[in-house]
Amino acid sequence: MTLSGSRKTTLSGPGNGGPGIVGALAARVRPTSAQRDRLLPLLTPLGPLFPGEGLQRGTVVAVDVADRAHDCPGGEPTGPGAGGATTLAFALLAAASATGSWCAAVGTADPGILSMAELGIDLGHLAIVPLLNKPGAALSRPGGTWPEVTAALIDGMDAVLVRPPWQARPRVARHLVARARERQTVLIVLSTRAWWSEGPELRLAVTTGVWHGVGTGYGHLRGRRVEVVATGRRIATRPVRAALWLPAPSGAVAEARENGQLTEEITRTSEVEPPTEDGERKRPQKRVEEKVRKRREKE
Length: 299
What we know:
Mean pLDDT: 75
Shape: globular
Number of domains: 2
Strand content: 15-25%
Largest sheet: 10 strands, mixed
Number of helices: 8
CATH architecture of the largest domain: 3-Layer(aba) Sandwich
Distance between the termini: 76 Å
Structural class: alpha/beta
């Protein structure tokens, strides 16, 4: 296990890093979360998706992963979905970590330290726990002890993000939900719907996603415009939709407005003219048509 921040401490060892070691970390950071308010803060663009515009302590938030082939045991996609779920899940931790709350991410593929910092995450308050099946295994493949490690972190963290490596057994899911409720910790589950049986208080899904800034073989990515839909229980039964830049050109999360300055800035990059074979910029079609029209008028 690696604690991200100005000082990194390796806590995992042979045997996948036992829960006892993770529990020691949980006990160490628990006193820093002295004042347990009922809501953890969220980035402003994400607020409208949540009742009270914050993360309710003791609740479970599910972020749906697109049911693509690599997410399914049989190798076949089981449903529709757009990318951006991992970015969205980490964005939920940004404001909380920035205000001093302790957060942890269990079993997620490395999203990149720079990307997390651009989202607004305080790396000094984020513990990243890549659990290994065996020494040298890929960091994105958590080992069989992920439920125990997640439970230990719930004991001491304000928010825990977990991506189960396979379908969670109902008993395991119920145990983690009950523990999060008891410890007043926010549990964020990054998973396909089929892999997590316990209904969360709130479920987020990225339904559409389009990258901007790249033409046909030229340009560079500037931002991804997505639509996020939130559904849930109790007061969150009615779906709530939000158009977001995930990420915006700065790497952060921003509200997407159809006619806003940010939209114009990103779209402008998509109009970059591709280079021709002789290295010169290809003229836009409208300029070519205008030139032909003027030539015909002179003739």
